[in-house]
């Protein structure tokens, strides 16, 4: 007999819509959720001077306290109200730090030095990737950083029905390099099984 938990029945199938994510957070079906803060991020925070960070599509918001404790002025956002409620209850996080809004439309409270990427790019359909790139480029000043975790994979993985939506390494570079320069990359040793082998820690700098 299988011991795998049953997948809930969902009414919404389009990950571009808030209702898709609202259902999954409300029903606590979030297999992408990594409760521990990755060692790659902790090392980055230990080495990088504190500044202002935006965390779009923050989900459960486990990384928000790490940024706050490292001295960063932090604003996170998600367009799922259920996710925002969870993130606001993280230790040391005030409700004002987490905004319920569409990242593509709302005006952040400040110009960031860093945008933290954690499973946002792989959560949206491929057709939306240029839109996300444009938003990153719009918000980050020259010299600003886009740092976090990017899910790369083979052509077969990239064609897999998502989310997560894999992107080939070549396509990721083709997407970002017109606007960003890659400064650092590594394979994180503590990826979730869902992302194992495809996840990359990367730091990109706005041209």
UniProtKB/TrEMBL annotation:
Q: Which domain of life is it from?
A: Bacteria
Please tell me whether the keyword Ribosomal protein is annotated for this protein: no
Q: Which InterPro entries match?
A: SAM-dependent_MTases_sf (IPR029063), TPMT (IPR008854)
Which SUPFAM superfamilies would you find in this protein's record?
S-adenosyl-L-methionine-dependent methyltransferases
Keyword entries, A-Z: Methyltransferase, Phosphoprotein, S-adenosyl-L-methionine, Transferase
State the protein's name. Thiopurine S-methyltransferase
Organism per entry? Undibacterium squillarum
The organism's taxonomy opens as: Bacteria, Pseudomonadati, Pseudomonadota, Betaproteobacteria, Burkholderiales
């Amino acid at each position: 007999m299988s011991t795998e938990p049953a997948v809930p029945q969902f009414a919404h199938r389009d990950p571009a819509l808030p209702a898709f994510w609202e259902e999954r957070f409300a029903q606590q079906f979030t297999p992408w959720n990594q409760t521990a803060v990755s060692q790659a991020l902790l090392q980055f925070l230990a080495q990088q001077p504190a500044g202002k960070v935006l965390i779009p599509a923050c989900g459960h918001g486990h990384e928000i306290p790490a940024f706050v404790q490292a001295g960063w002025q932090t604003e996170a956002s998600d367009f799922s109200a259920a996710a925002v409620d969870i993130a606001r209850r993280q230790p040391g996080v005030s409700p004002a730090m987490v905004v319920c809004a569409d990242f593509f439309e709302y005006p952040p409270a400040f110009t960031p030095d860093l945008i933290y990427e954690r499973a946002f790019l792989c959560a949206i359909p491929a057709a939306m990737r240029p839109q996300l790139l444009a938003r990153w480029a719009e918000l980050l000043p020259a010299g600003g950083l886009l740092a976090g975790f990017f899910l790369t994979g083979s052509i077969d993985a990239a064609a897999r029905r998502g989310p997560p939506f894999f992107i080939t390494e070549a396509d990721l570079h083709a997407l970002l390099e017109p606007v960003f320069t890659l400064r650092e990359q590594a394979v994180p040793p503590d990826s979730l099984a869902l992302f194992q082998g495809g996840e990359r820690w990367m730091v990109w700098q706005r041209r």
